[in-house]
Amino acid sequence: MSHAYTPGLKVLENTSVEKERRLPLKGEVLVDKGTDVTPDQIVARTHLPGNVKMVNVANLLNVDAQDVPEFMLIDIGKNVSEGDLLAETKGLFGLFKSEVKSPVDGILESVSHITGQVVIREAPIPVEVDAYINGNVSEVMDKEGVIITSNAVFIQGIFGMGGENRGDLSVLVANREDELNEDMITTDNKGSIIVGGSHISLNAYKKAISMGVSAVVVGGYNYHDLKDILGYTLGVAITGSEDIGTSLIITEGYGKIPMGARSFDILKRHNGRFTSVNGATQIRAGVIRPEIVIPFNDVDGLDSALKKNETGITEGSLVRVIRAPYFGHIGTVASLPRELQKMESETMVRVAEVKINDLNFVIPRANLERVETV
After folding, report:
1. Least C-beta-crowded within 10 Å: which of 87, 206, 218, 250?
2. Is 246 among the domain residues?
3. 364 contacts 343 by C-beta, under 8 angstroms
4. What is the per-residue DSSP string for 176-241?
């Protein structure tokens, strides 16, 4: 049988999910291997170096740089508060003194007799990493973080923004073709992960943000409306750091596209369950997909047969088209011809014959991704 390797889009109702929770710098891991954790539980902590403030004492005192050390009133390594006197000239008969005060709270880190600059380091910035999902600590990375394992529903979308969020899952539409409109979103949805069908409008998404909804999961969204939310045009880059409050996960693509039947059915079956989501997306090398994780209560006895499957595309595989003109459509691979075929661009590429809505289309294999369902 023909075979092709390609990135896969996962739509799994029962699988082993591993999430790495790593600090940006070495610090302290707060949990032991084998510990059960909850999403809000802090599993690791560190401190980033504080910001540096440069103070040109030589200029402010109107003295030579080499003389600055003798006018300093605070020793290196000592704490200073905003407004504290850092340096002062002796003046004339004790009068007409020049002085320099600290512009920030921090620690006096260095005094240069070459440049006349004084460096003040502001307080360290605490960084904490939470568990993100319900699960069990399967591995501890010394002073760096942990890996958390959970038996869960795991669904990937095609685009997202807004980073990590969590809450109870609330499916607000009856069918995957239904649009999520403003009237469906109420104050009762505060802190929830709400699910729509084919589309959510700009106004409805803005209402979700104003209501404090944790995240929106929907089939499609208008690409041009992203600029209105973000304030800038989104390029080909990584998302997830946007400060918008309400994460957005698009499962199918841009426009009005019904959510995939399997994704919608799974979400509907797990309506009301606690859910973690992450809108982070990267399309280029090192692909990152937005994700929906619904952990089960029992994290023991994980079925190894349900772990990551990397067999690639074969005949009969469920695939999604990731480029125009059939972007977002899902179909089944009918065949994988061995011969290269010429496309409209005159390039010779390997293709797949894909059955979409009872019609067969010849599509470059590079334009497909496998939808993992087991």
Report:
1. 206
2. yes
3. yes
4. TT-EE-GGG--GGGTT-EEE-SSEE-HHHHHHHHHTT-SEEEEEEE-TTHHHHHHSS---SS--S-
Question: Are the CB atoms for 256 and 276 separated by under 8 Å?
Answer: no
Instruction: Please return the burial class of 294, using the count of CB atoms within 10 Å of its CB with bins 0-12, 13-18 and 19+.
Output: buried
Number of structural domains (the chain) is 3
Tokens read off for 62: 């109107």
Q: Measured on CA atoms in the order 363, 364, 367, 373, is the torsion positive or negative? A: positive
Tokens of 191: 């802190």
Which positions ≥6 away from 233 have C-beta within 8 Å?
226, 227
Phi, psi torsion values for 70, nearest 5 degrees: -75, -15
**What amino acid occupies position 149?**
T
- Find the helix or strand (DSSP H, E) in which 252 lies: strand 247-254
Q: What are phi and psi of 39, to 5 degrees?
A: -55, -40
CB atoms within 10 A of CB 305: 9
Within 192-258, residue ranges assigned H as helices are 202-210, 225-230
> For residue 282, which of 240, 247, 311 has the smallest C-alpha distance?
240
- Kindly write down the DSSP assignment for every residue of 50-100, as one continuous string: PPEEEEEHHHHHT--GGGHHHHB-S-TT-EE-TT-EEEE---BTTBS--EE
Give the CA diameter of the chain.
98
* This prediction's pTM: 0.74
DSSP character for 124?
P
Query: Contact 51/57 with Cβ under 8 angstroms?
Result: no
Q: How many residues does the chain have?
A: 374
- pLDDT < 70 stretches in the chain: 1-8, 92-95, 235-237, 284-286, 297-312, 373-374
Q: Are residues 173 and 265 in the same domain?
A: yes
Torsion over CA: 68, 74, 79, 80 (sign): negative
Strand arrangement of the beta sheet that strand 117-121 belongs to: 52-56, 117-121, 106-111, 79-80
Report how far residue 138's alpha carbon sits from residue 150's, in angstroms, rounded to the nearest whole number: 9
- Residue 114 is part of which domain span? 52-121
For residue 83, the tally of other CB atoms under 10 A from its CB is 10
**Per-residue pLDDT tens for 329-344?**
888 999 988 888 888 7
Q: What is the CATH number of the domain that holds 335?
A: 2.30.30.30
Backbone phi, then psi, for 93, in 5-degree steps?
55, 35
